[in-house]
């Protein structure tokens, strides 16, 4: 299993300088990918802008969206941006797409959420048939999302949670792959949150970021990985469940976090 | 800490015991509307494995309760005049009244304040505590009061059920299936004392009305029900009533089990159908988890309640899901009344995915050995291979086992090819094999050639890239479908098919497949391909014409299969009548946005439906990943063959 790291694009105190240094350091430390999230109504970097910045200071790590809310972006513009980023990064982009979790993000962009599944499918079809398309992943929890991943993409990106939840989703992603008649197996990507030191700040950020989910936010905050042992256990369990690449997202904007993470996953 | 607990059922009392036991300085008050010795519903049953957790949590009440248990491990299935006994299960029963009495004593002894006969109509007077616990059952006032915080999802199972007692102890847990002129009456009976049993009786809504139970008084209802089960009660025995009203089982689940300092547990937070006998155990385990979390996070209530929820919700959800499957099984059990008693009992035992062939063999090796020999033909032999390795005869072809793979393998009982196109325009993509280019049958596993025509799902890019992605314009060929409607928003509009010209290629291809030496043939009528596009418009004549044309040229001694959806059982019956010997049940992809909920063995219910309703052998497909699962599915008569998903 490969291990990547998220970029601090939505944690409090994010800034351009940190983003650049974080990306460069992570690449140097051997993390295999740099992940970004996508939200409209939250203080955060545009996902593709952040990856574009990261592309300039890195040369090995893949650049992955986990996930980009596809229906909020016009398809031909998205295809153009993706192609540009793909060219600029030397083919390191992996585009993870989903419908996202929030209706208010749609309202903020004046996009009708009732058609979002259909729009995403058409968008994926368009991207997939474009010769310059990057590898695609699909995220989301229902049967439709698993089939969408099998129909259009190279794999499935899980939304995070305990290893058991990942295992369950992975089994369903494989079943959809088989159901669709795709040869081989889907690429399976997982994700988790961590704070090595400053656990309180990390938990506060998660409570805030997930406030729209109500009581669920507390559970996300409680599941934050706050010790090297917790990270090791989590990674080992994900690996056992067949995860191909696990991306660990920071919850605190501090470069020291990155080095501690590298140390935790090194052994 | 100051704790107010609403409801002196098992969950509330047990939580009070654990909290007070941990720290005598806690003020723990339990408020209950009823008398200390008033209770409804006779005995409760624990059917879920071990009670070790109770032993660790509070040894004193564990000893008191388990000493009062009636425990046994066999269960009987009384069906069609026979009784099948299965051993190795763990059951314990206790009078609900006795259980509560023991817990009350223990709580009282620890200094818990118990207030009975106190009707709670508002939570207001109880909110001054540090923690408020709603252990107030399925109709929880606490849950209703804070519905916004708990976000409950409520539902009801369509079947009717009522709790009765019996004035004697059934020897073991007993399922009784009794057919009456109004429909099926089932009783789930278990002893809970030397002279008492609980009988939960289940009937359909239609039976409830047709029998007049819907308008009967409690006494009349008891009298009728007793008359129905008199033979099973035995002479001189009678059923007992105690608020034995006919109800629909309530489904309750909550997104959150706590809001602020108010927490709910047990039936207030979640129900699991009684047919898996877990409600009381779940409630007690909730209390243990909550007490433990409160000890660990003694200065952070929010963290404690969050941890409680995170620990318990996944466990409860899994059990609820199993209980839903179990409830649905009992509601549709009449579908299986053609089964012989051994298979009927086997299926009952394996009704939820939690118990497989291997689990059952570990519980009762003798039963499973007997079942295996019955399944293999019951010709007096002492041992036989398990169901997955029992041969299957279809017309003159005998498959050595029940495992189907989609690629050649020496171990497979049958190999099914991917779709083989009857014509060039019927290909899915340029790499789709054509019937005319098939190689002759080779020695090894039997291969079933699946003939089809992709229809409007044709002219696509290879599936190594994706599915339903149209080829570039220059490489496309014209496609046809029942109507000139595109399969998906991004795919081309097909031409309207001319059915008169499209049936013959199937027959020609079938003839060719036969000449190549294959002994099994399938017609793919599934997944929105050409023939399915007619079925989707309820046009059965073209599919039947294709089938008849092929059956005519396909030798009478060789089996012919059809792959199709389970949506129209009428269509499946027509295929059977037209000579189909085997149905591969494939749902999903009939339309571009069809929904499939994946999950372990997700396609088996559809196969089961087709097999039992249409009386035709089936192939099940869908996340079947172990031979143990194949044994279970085939043994339980949910399919005759299973496609094993292998990476």
Structural class of chain A: alpha/beta
Per CATH, the class of the largest domain in chain B reads: Alpha Beta
Biggest sheet strand line-up of chain A: 1-2-3-5-6-7-8-9
Fold-level CATH name of chain A? TIM Barrel
Q: What best-fitting shape of chain A do the alpha-carbon axes yield? A: globular
Looking at the structure, what is the overall shape of chain B?
Answer: elongated
CATH superfamily of the largest domain in chain B: FAD/NAD(P)-binding domain
Main sheet attributes: strand count, strand direction, barrel closure of chain A: 8 strands, parallel, barrel
Q: Number of DSSP helices of chain B?
A: 20
Give the overall average pLDDT of chain A.
95
Poorly predicted runs of chain A? none
SSE class of chain B: alpha/beta
Radius of gyration of chain A: 17 Å
- As for the number of domains of chain A, it is 1
Tell me the CATH architecture of chain A: Alpha-Beta Barrel
CATH topology of the largest domain in chain B: FAD/NAD(P)-binding domain
N-C termini distance of chain B: 55 Å
Q: Residue share in helices of chain A? A: 40-55%
Number of domains of chain B: 2
Q: Give the distance, in angstroms, between the N- and C-terminal Cα atoms of chain A.
A: 14 Å
Keywords summarizing the entry:
heterodimer, A: 267 residues, alpha/beta, TIM Barrel, eight-stranded parallel β-barrel, globular, B: 647 residues, FAD/NAD(P)-binding domain, 2 domains, eight-stranded mixed β-sheet, eight-stranded parallel barrel, 22% strand
Question: What does this molecule look like?
Answer:
The complex is a heterodimer of chains A (267) and B (647). By secondary structure, chain A is α/β, with parallel strands linked by helices. Chain A has a single domain (2-266), classed as TIM Barrel (Alpha-Beta Barrel). Helices cover 48% and strands 16% of the residues of chain A. Chain A is built from eleven helices and nine strands. Chain A has an eight-stranded parallel beta barrel with strand order 1-2-3-5-6-7-8-9, surrounded by eight helices. In chain A, β7, α7 (163-180) and β8 (187-194) form a beta-alpha-beta unit. In chain A, α1 crosses α2, α1 (16-29) packs parallel to α11 and α8 (199-209) runs antiparallel to α9 (216-222). With 647 residues, chain B is of the alpha/beta class. Chain B folds into two domains: 2-329, FAD/NAD(P)-binding domain, CATH 3.50.50; 388-643, Alpha-Beta Barrel (TIM Barrel). Chain B is built from 20 helices and 30 strands. In chain B, the strands form six sheets. In chain B, strands 5, 6, 10, 11, 12, 13, 14 and 15 form an eight-stranded mixed sheet that branches. In chain B, strands 20-21-23-26-27-28-29-30 form an eight-stranded parallel β-barrel, surrounded by four helices. The radius of gyration of chain B is 29 Å and the shape is elongated. Classes of the chains: A alpha/beta (267), B alpha/beta (647). At the A-B interface, α5, α6, α7 and α9 of A face β16 and α10 of B.
């Amino acid at each position: 299993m490969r291990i990547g790291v998220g970029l601090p694009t939505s944690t409090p105190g994010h800034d351009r300088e940190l983003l650049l240094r974080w990306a460069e350091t992570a690449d140097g430390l051997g993390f295999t990918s740099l992940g970004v999230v996508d939200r409209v109504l939250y203080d955060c970097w545009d996902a593709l802008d952040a990856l574009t910045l990261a592309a300039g200071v890195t040369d090995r790590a893949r650049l992955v969206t986990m996930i980009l809310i596809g229906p909020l972006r016009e398809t031909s513009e998205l295809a153009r941006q993706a192609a540009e980023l793909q060219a600029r990064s030397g083919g390191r982009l992996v585009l993870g797409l989903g419908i996202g979790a929030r209706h208010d993000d749609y309202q903020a962009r004046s996009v009708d959420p009732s058609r979002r599944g259909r729009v995403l499918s058409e968008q994926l079809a368009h991207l997939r048939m474009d010769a310059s398309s990057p590898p695609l992943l699909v995220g989301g929890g229902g049967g439709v999302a698993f089939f969408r991943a099998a129909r259009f993409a190279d794999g499935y990106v899980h939304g995070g949670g305990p290893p058991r939840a990942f295992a369950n989703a992975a089994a369903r992603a494989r079943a959809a792959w088989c159901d669709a008649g795709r040869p081989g197996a889907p690429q399976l990507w997982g994700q988790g949150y961590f704070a090595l030191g400053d656990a309180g700040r990390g938990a506060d950020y998660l409570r805030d970021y997930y406030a729209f989910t109500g009581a669920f936010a507390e559970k996300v905050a409680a599941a934050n990985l706050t010790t090297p042992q917790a990270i090791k256990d989590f990674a080992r369990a994900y690996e056992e469940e067949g995860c191909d690449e696990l991306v660990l997202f920071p919850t605190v904007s501090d470069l020291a976090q990155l080095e501690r993470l590298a140390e935790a996953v090194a052994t | 800490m100051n704790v107010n607990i609403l409801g002196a059922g098992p969950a509330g009392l047990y939580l009070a015991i654990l909290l007070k036991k941990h720290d005598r300085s806690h003020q723990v008050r339990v408020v209950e509307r009823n008398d200390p010795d008033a209770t409804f519903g006779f005995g409760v049953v624990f059917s879920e494995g071990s009670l070790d957790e109770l032993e660790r949590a509070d040894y004193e009440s564990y000893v008191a309760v388990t000493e009062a248990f009636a425990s046994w491990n066999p269960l009987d299935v009384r069906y069609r005049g026979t009784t099948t006994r299965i051993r190795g299960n763990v059951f314990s029963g206790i009078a609900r009244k006795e259980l509560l009495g023991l817990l009350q004593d223990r709580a009282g002894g620890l200094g818990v304040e118990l207030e009975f006969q106190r009707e709670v109509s508002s939570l207001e007077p109880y909110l001054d505590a540090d923690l408020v616990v709603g252990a107030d059952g399925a109709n929880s006032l606490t849950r209703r009061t804070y519905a916004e915080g708990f976000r409950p999802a409520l539902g009801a199972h369509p079947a009717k059920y009522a709790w009765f007692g019996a004035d004697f102890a059934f020897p073991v847990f007993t399922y009784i299936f009794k057919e009456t002129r109004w429909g099926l009456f089932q009783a789930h009976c278990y002893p809970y004392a030397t002279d008492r049993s609980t009988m939960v009786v289940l009937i359909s809504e239609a039976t409830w009305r047709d029998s007049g139970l819907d308008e009967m008084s409690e006494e009349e209802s008891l009298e009728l029900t007793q008359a129905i089960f008199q033979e099973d009660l035995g002479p001189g025995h009678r059923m007992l009533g105690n608020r034995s009203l006919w109800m629909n089982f309530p489904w309750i689940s909550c997104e959150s089990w706590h809001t602020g300092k108010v927490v709910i547990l047990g039936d207030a937070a979640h129900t699991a159908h009684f047919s898996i006998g877990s409600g009381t155990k779940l409630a007690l385990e909730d209390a243990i988890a909550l007490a433990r979390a409160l000890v660990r996070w003694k200065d952070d209530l929010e963290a404690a309640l969050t941890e409680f929820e995170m620990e318990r919700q996944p466990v409860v959800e899994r059990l609820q899901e199993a209980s839903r499957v179990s409830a649905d099984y009992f509601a549709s059990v009449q579908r299986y009344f053609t089964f012989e008693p051994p298979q009927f009992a086997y299926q009952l035992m394996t009704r939820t995915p939690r118990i497989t062939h291997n689990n059952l063999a570990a519980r009762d090796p003798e039963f499973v050995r007997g079942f295996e020999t019955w399944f293999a033909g019951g010709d007096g032999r002492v041992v036989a291979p398990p169901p997955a390795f029992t041969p299957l005869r279809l017309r003159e072809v005998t498959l050595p086992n029940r495992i189907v793979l989609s690629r050649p393998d020496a171990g497979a009982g049958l190999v099914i090819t991917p779709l083989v196109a009857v014509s060039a325009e019927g290909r899915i993509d340029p790499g789709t094999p054509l019937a005319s280019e098939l190689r002759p049958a080779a020695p090894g596993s039997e291969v079933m050639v699946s003939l089809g025509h992709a229809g409007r799902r044709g002219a696509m890019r290879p599936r190594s890239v994706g599915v339903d992605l149209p080829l570039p314009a220059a490489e496309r060929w014209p496609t046809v479908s029942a109507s000139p409607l595109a399969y998906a928003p991004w795919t081309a509009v097909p031409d309207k098919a001319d059915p008169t010209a499209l049936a013959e290629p199937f027959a020609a291809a079938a003839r060719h497949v036969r000449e190549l030496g294959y002994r099994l043939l399938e017609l793919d009528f599934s997944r929105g391909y050409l023939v399915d596009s007619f079925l989707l418009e309820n046009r059965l004549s073209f599919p039947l014409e294709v089938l008849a044309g092929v059956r005519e040229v396909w030798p009478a001694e060789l089996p012919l299969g059809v792959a199709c959806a389970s949506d129209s059982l009428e269509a499946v019956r027509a295929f059977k009548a037209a000579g189909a010997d085997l149905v591969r049940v494939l749902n999903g992809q009939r339309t571009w946005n069809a929904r499939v909920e994946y999950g372990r063995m997700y396609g088996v219910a559809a196969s089961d439906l087709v097999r039992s309703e249409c009386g035709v052998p089936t192939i099940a497909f869908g996340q079947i990943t172990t031979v143990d699962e194949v044994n279970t599915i085939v043994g339980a008569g949910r399919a005759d063959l299973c496609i094993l998903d292998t990476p």
